[in-house]
Amino acid sequence: MVASDYLLHILLLAFISTTCGVRYSCENAPEEDLYCFVSSVTAETHSCRTEFPEQTSIQLQFAHLEELSARMMYRMPNVERLDIFNSYVRNAFLKPELKYFRVSRCQLNEIQIDTAEKYQLTELHLPENELTSIPKGLNHLTNLTLIDLSNNHLSYLDMKQFNGLDQLTILGLSYNSIKVVFATGLVQLPSLLFLNLAHNNINTMDISRWNFSSLQELDVSTNSLERIDNLLEQLPSLGNINFGGNQWNCAWRDDFLEKAEGSLQMIGLVMCQLTVDIHGLAQKARQEQSVKKALAENISNVVKNLTTNEMDLGDIVEDVFCRIIQGE
Question: Whole-prediction pTM value?
Answer without folding.
Answer: 0.78
